Amino acid sequence: MKAKVTLENTQTLEVEVMRKCSVEEVIKETPDTYTLMLKPLDKKEYNFVPGQFNMLYAFGVGEVPISLSGDPDEKRLIAHTVRIVGAVTNALVNTRKPGFIGLRGPFGNGWPLEKAKGKDVIIVAGGIGLAPLRPAIYYVLKHRKEYGKFFFLYGARTPNDLLYKKELKEWKSRFDMDTFITVDAGDEKWTGNVGVVTTLFKRIRLDPDNTYAFVCGPEIMMKFTVLELRNQGLTDDKIYISMERNMKCGMGLCGHCQFGPYFVCKDGPVFSMDQINRFFGRREV
Amino acid sequence: MSSQQKTYFALDAEMFGNIIDVLKDLGYTVYGPTERDGAIVYDVLDSAEQIARGLYDEQSPGRYKLVKKNDKRYFGYVVGPQSPKYVLYPPQHLLFKVRKDGKTFIPQSDGKKIAIVGLRPCDLKAIEILDNVLLKGPYKESVYEALRKDAVFIAVNCVEPGNNCFCTSMNTGPFAQSGYDICITEFLTDRSHVFILDVMTNRGAEVVNRLGCRNATAEELDAVSRLMEEAKNKVRKRLNTENLKDDLYKNIEHPNWNEVGNRCLACGNCTLVCPTCFCSSVFDKSSLSMDVAERWGLWDSCFSIDYSYIHGGSIRQSIMSRYRQWLMHKLATWVDQFGTFGCVGCGRCITWCPVGIDITEEANRVRG
Predict the structure, then answer these.
(1) Identity of the residue in A13, A249, A261 whose CB atom sits nearest the CB atom of B337
(2) For a tag site, which of A4, A61, A159, A226 has the least CB within 10 Å?
(3) Structurally, how many domains does chain B consist of?
């Protein structure tokens, strides 16, 4: 029997302990991005809330924060989507049995999915920013009746950089969500939208008093997405973004992830715009 | 010093060494101020002989100098480049070892009990602030906790504050208010040399009971009160903390950030000497055969370019932004995070800045 996902913060002191995981499957998403399916060898059930992240450790190389990108109802395998950007991510993606990946987590808060119940939801993702949003999409679709209209806007650099192509296709074909996908630059086979993700906003009309927005992507993309959402009348308390900073401990102790008065790892990574509008979009804060 | 309910003890200077001996007998590893490489540092003491007697420090922005005087004063200097975090949260600490098969070894505390003698009131406050940061959140810093838990603090009131001290502005000194087991005031005249002891805790009482102290006389307590009044007035540097947080938040784009950014070398000295700077990093290393890997914790500084590194580059590229992060953290965001300032007014960052940048001046400029 599957345990019900609670949307409360599930942090316990257990997160400090590194759990050894085997890599059960490696799914190539784009030329440099892979989804790793991890299985904890202690066989304990793993619970998380959409929007949370784990610290993943590659033996002898180092540890990096990676968003949970899988279905929160899936308790056996834990999904992380990793883009190879350095030594640790490279080592993680190339870990095979009998090698292991060390996992600490889950850390952080998560998307306010409970609060958004009964309302419309718009999810806007840029590039690999879709990874921490995919669990939220799964959740909304699984509890579809509890939400109003559901918009999903996704932009990537090129068609090759789109994540989760199979699911994108499925989501596009659904009648209970409005999916719009765009790329900055198309290729010879691309027949969809071309342009940055904010260009998709002219296709939709949001009900500002009744809509929650969840946004994740590069900071510049989030900055302009927030402007579009405000243009459509959304107030800052209904706009949520997932921030990225250098997270080393995940526990608010090492100081690296500070963003104004917040520790992104424990106070975030999801913030409402009215929490952070004093700092968001300022250079080098 | 009101003597209505409390008993204050007096210890003649010849007997002072007993404190160290008693602490050692009680099983403590005793740290105290001793001279090394021309500066006062906290080091392990075998006896009171190692305490830097007769030494005085001269401090000004970017300058520190020890001067020898021909007296027997034990605590004639104020704070040196080391703060108690060197002892309680060592600059490098092993976090765990892990074998290739995933078996993990977490170092266990060796049960070492620490006593620090000669802590200044600002440093006591700094420990209180570190407790807040490292022990009171949802998670605890286990290395700090193990060393901090049973530590005994023998504080020393500052009767001769330094030039860079601004503890009266931060309400942390020059006299200890809390956080100590025993607090000492050194009282040296031509005729006498005594220590007046104020005992706060049972652990402190345990030590004092073994010392063979006498009760302090009324005259001695009066003299101490006078010393305290005088010392307060000797703290000249000021930082007006009223509305400081809001003023800094309002001036996050003030042109002075650029100006100080041009002078700052981003060397990180201020963060290493700061008694409350707690940022740390980890580094992983493995044996050549790749059989065993270790993870070490290491102090880090928000002045390093790597500190804010995420894929694609560092968030804080300019020195201006790193200085701003540091000062704003100490005097503004810390208040939102932990309810107090992250600054105790010890003045170390001013003394040990190679170009003499003064946090009190910069905060005032940014407000102006």
Answers:
(1) A261
(2) A4
(3) 2
The CA distance from B323 to the nearest CA of chain A, in Å, is 11
CA B33, B36, B40 angle in degrees (round to 5)?
35
CA distance B218 to B221: 5
In sequence order, what are the residues at sequence separation of 6 or more whose Cβ sits closer than 8 angstroms to the Cβ of residue B241? B169, B170, B341
B343 found inside a domain: yes
pLDDT in tens, B80-122: 999 999 999 999 999 888 888 888 888 877 888 999 999 999 9
Higher per-residue pLDDT: B3 or B38: B38
Residues B90 and B129 in one domain: yes
Instruction: Report phi then psi at B196, rounded to 5.
Output: -100, 125
Q: DSSP letter string over B49-105? A: GGS-TTEEEEEETTEEEEEE-SS--S--S---S--THHHHS-SEEEEEEEETTS-EE
Asked if A128 and A83 touch (Cβ cutoff 8 Å), the reply is yes
What are chain A's domains?
13-107 (2.40.30.10), 120-242 (3.40.50.80)
CB nearest to A254's CB, from B280, B293, B337 = B280
Same structural domain, B163 and B264: no
Q: Does A252 contact B at CB distance below 8 Å?
A: yes
Q: Identify the residue whose tokens are 């996704």.
A: A154
Quick one: B180 and B132 in the same domain? yes
Nearest to A284 among B249, B280, B317 (CB): B317
Q: Is the pLDDT of residue A41 over 80?
A: yes
Whole-angstrom distance, CA of residue A281 vs CA of residue A273: 11
Same domain for B225 and B296?
no
Domain enclosing residue B59, as ranges: 8-234
Residue B1 has pLDDT above 70, yes or no: no
Within this chain, do residues B117 and B228 fall inside the same structural domain, yes or no? Answer: yes
Alpha helix (H) ranges present in B136-255? 142-148, 167-170, 202-211, 218-234, 244-250
In-domain check, residue B2: no
B-chain residue closest to A260, CA distance: B333
Whole-angstrom distance, CA of residue B181 vs CA of residue B198: 8
Mutation target for A interface from B96, B145, B315: give the one with most A CBs within 10 A: B315
A83/B279 Cβ within 8 A: no
Chain B residue with CA closest to A15: the answer is: B139
Residue at which a domain ends, from B178, B202, B234: B234
CA distances to A65, B33, B337 from A82, in Å: 10, 50, 31
B116 shares its domain with B162 = yes
Q: Could A266 and B138 be called an inter-chain contact, meaning their C-beta atoms sit closer than 8 Å?
A: yes
Residues B199 and B171 in one domain: yes
